[in-house]
Every structure is written in structure tokens, then in C-alpha cells.
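pls design
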């Protein structure tokens, strides 16, 4: 008996997490002698949530694992690619294509879309915050706002989107990094005294753990910041403010006060971290106020999902499409310079970028061929570097 409400790897790979109408579709096709019907399908989105001009594709490695062992061929944009919902001519951009007998993959549409939609939303939200808080330390604190079964996915997506680290043990292990974090209010409360808690943390934790003191448990943040600096001295790496809504009004003003009072007393090396209610709407002003880093939770883990859909666009080698979609296989081209997309009919060459004149390159890469993974599955750190290089060339937020 399973005690947590989470699907197993086998249940996902075997199609047990699909919508029932795909099972019924497969049964009908098989009973009517249409088992060998070949279909080419593409994954697109009509638009991105909340007016986002671009997204960061995430979840591709899981898609590869999902289709591994199935007699189908899958192509995809590389994981971490910054994509747009539509190309320069307003055509939807396919991010993934699947080709094979439809009965061999129809029941995997639902889990595949879930993997892409959720992870891409998280990675995109993380990348948008990274773009705003460029050069600041960003830690993913959002696992407590979602089911623990998906903590590794949430942390991986946030890291790929540009965050520096994650708080969960299993999430950090999956991305090959050490978990990042400070101390909770409960530690302070257990000791009943801030100074005692900070000293105990300093005495117990190994030297490679940064001494970042939580400074808003009992007293004013400015007062506790000074207390922490006087208590730990040179060993204090930073202080953390974890008050989502200040009782005095402006959190940026509190950051400015703390920064000033630390500096005026000669504690200029002590960094200021802020957590609690941080998102893209308020992180910019906190950066300007002097914050050095952030713990970001709910706005990342509960990021809006990207509404990807999969549609058959070719049956038996002939173009087909439901209304509102375009039939036939397509070539997906992307400018190496300005990152815009251009969709052409299969086999058509794009030429130069219609926007900047830069070189266009084929964007879809083989991922799975006849059930065997043939595409490169980069480590999270490599994907993150790829995202950051693209973000340097993206102007919009």
C-alpha cells in the first residue's frame, strides 16, 4: 500500500496517469484494424501566461525518459531553450514533435504535457526573476508550497532558470549541488534568545556553512542586525529578513536602514538577504535598496503553467489538422543572434533572419529514435549556463 498520493515511475511510463479517453481511443483503433496508423504530432502553445514574451523550455529530460522504450521518434528544442509562443510571422512554434504509430504513444500525451507545462512555468518564472535580479544570489525556497513528491522537479526547474541554489536535500542532490539555506525562526524561539541561537549555530555548523543570521524574530530588524554583527563579528556572513509585510510599511526602507547601520559600524562585509513574499513585482526595488540575495518561494513553486497542447498534424504521411491548427510537418528555425523563430514547411530553408539578418539554425534536435534516447541530456549546471547566456541577449521581461 502506497502511503503518499504520488504516482510511481512505472505508473507514469505505462500510461496509468493518462486521461481515460486516450485509453478508449487506443481500444477503438485496435478493434477497427487501425493499429498501424502512423501519426506525426507537435507540441505548441497559443500564448504564454501573464503576457510573458518568452519562456524557458524545461522537462525535456523527463520526456526522453517517458518515451524511452516506445517505438516512436521524438524531436525537441534543447532543454533550457528560450522560446516564444509564435514565430516572426505569428505561427505557433513546435517545441516537441512525436512520430510513430499513434497507438504506441497516445496514452503518453497527458504525462508528457504535464512534465513540460509545469516545469517550463517554474523555469520561466525563475528566469524572469534572475533577469531582474542579475548578479544577486537567488535561492529556491518554494518546496513547502507544493507536494513533496515533486520537490526535485521544482528545484531543478528553478536552478535551470538561473537560481544559484535550492533548499531541499533531494533537490540539491538531483542537480549535483549542495543545499542552500540559513536558519528558521524555530531555532531562535527554541533558545528564547537571538544571541544564544546565533552562537549555537556558529558553534555547531561546520566552517563551510555560511553564518547568515535571521534578524526579525523578536526585535526591530535594524536592532537585531547590529546584535548579530556584534555577536559573531567577522564570522557573520549575512543577515536575513523574513518579514513578507513590514509592520512599519516599506521593506525597501528597512533594507536601507539595515545596510546603513551595518556600514556605519564597520560591518560592510555583512550581506543582506530577504525572503518571504518575494516575486518579480517587488524584487527590483529590493535590489535597488541594497539587498544582496533572496530566498524565493511561492512565486516560483506556484508559477503559472505553460498551456502546451499536442496536436496531430499528419496522418499516414498526409497533412491534417483540427481547426485553428496548421497541418503538415514543419521546420523550426531560430536566429543565433536575436533568438527569434521562423517556421517553414518541412524541407524549406530559412535563409537569413528576417529581423536582424543573422544566421538561422535548425532548432529541433533528435531526442528519441525508435525508443532509444539519442539526444544529449546535459547536466542541470550545463543547462543553467545555456539559459544564462541566452538571458544576456533577451531584452524583454
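designed seq:
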Amino acid at each position: 500500500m502506497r502511503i503518499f498520493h504520488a504516482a510511481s515511475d512505472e505508473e507514469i511510463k505505462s500510461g496509468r496517469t493518462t486521461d481515460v479517453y486516450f485509453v478508449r481511443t487506443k481500444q477503438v483503433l485496435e478493434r477497427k484494424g487501425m493499429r498501424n496508423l502512423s501519426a506525426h504530432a507537435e507540441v505548441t502553445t497559443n500564448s504564454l501566461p501573464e503576457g510573458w514574451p518568452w519562456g524557458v523550455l524545461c522537462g525535456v529530460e523527463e520526456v526522453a525518459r517517458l518515451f524511452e522504450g516506445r517505438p516512436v521518434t521524438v524531436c525537441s528544442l534543447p532543454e533550457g531553450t528560450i522560446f516564444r509562443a509564435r514565430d516572426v510571422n505569428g505561427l505557433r512554434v513546435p517545441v516537441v514533435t512525436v512520430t510513430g504509430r499513434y497507438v504506441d504513444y497516445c496514452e503518453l500525451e497527458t504525462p508528457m504535457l504535464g512534465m513540460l507545462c509545469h516545469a517550463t512555468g517554474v523555469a520561466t518564472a525563475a528566469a524572469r526573476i534572475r533577469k531582474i535580479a542579475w548578479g544577486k544570489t537567488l535561492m529556491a525556497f518554494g518546496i513547502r508550497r507544493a507536494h513533496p513528491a515533486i520537490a526535485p522537479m521544482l528545484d531543478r526547474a528553478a536552478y535551470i532558470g538561473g537560481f544559484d541554489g535550492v533548499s531541499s536535500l533531494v533537490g540539491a542532490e538531483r542537480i549535483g549541488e549542495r543545499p542552500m539555506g540559513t536558519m528558521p525562526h524555530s531555532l531562535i524561539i527554541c533558545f528564547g534568545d537571538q544571541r544564544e541561537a546565533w552562537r549555537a549555530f556558529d558553534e555547531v555548523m561546520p566552517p563551510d556553512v555560511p553564518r547568515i543570521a535571521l534578524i526579525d524574530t523578536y526585535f526591530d530588524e535594524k536592532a537585531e542586525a547590529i546584535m548579530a554583527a556584534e555577536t559573531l563579528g567577522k564570522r557573520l556572513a549575512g543577515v536575513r529578513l523574513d518579514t513578507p509585510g513590514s509592520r512599519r510599511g516599506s521593506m525597501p526602507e528597512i533594507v536601507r536602514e539595515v545596510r546603513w547601520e551595518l556600514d556605519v559600524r564597520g560591518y560592510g562585509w555583512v550581506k543582506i538577504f530577504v525572503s518571504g513574499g518575494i516575486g518579480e513585482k517587488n524584487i527590483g526595488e529590493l535590489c535597488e535598496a541594497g539587498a544582496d540575495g533572496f530566498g524565493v518561494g511561492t512565486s516560483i513553486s506556484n508559477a503559472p503553467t505553460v498551456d502546451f497542447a499536442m496536436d496531430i498534424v499528419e496522418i499516414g504521411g498526409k497533412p491534417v489538422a483540427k481547426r485553428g491548427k496548421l497541418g503538415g510537418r514543419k521546420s523550426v528555425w531560430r536566429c543565433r543572434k536575436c533568438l527569434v523563430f521562423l517556421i517553414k514547411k518541412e524541407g524549406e530553408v530559412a535563409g537569413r533572419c528576417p529581423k536582424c539578418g543573422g544566421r538561422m539554425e535548425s532548432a529541433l534536435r533528435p531526442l528519441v529514435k525508435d525508443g532509444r534516447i539519442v539526444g544529449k541530456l546535459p547536466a542541470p549546471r550545463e543547462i543553467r549556463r545555456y539559459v544564462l547566456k541566452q538571458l544576456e541577449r533577451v531584452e524583454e521581461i
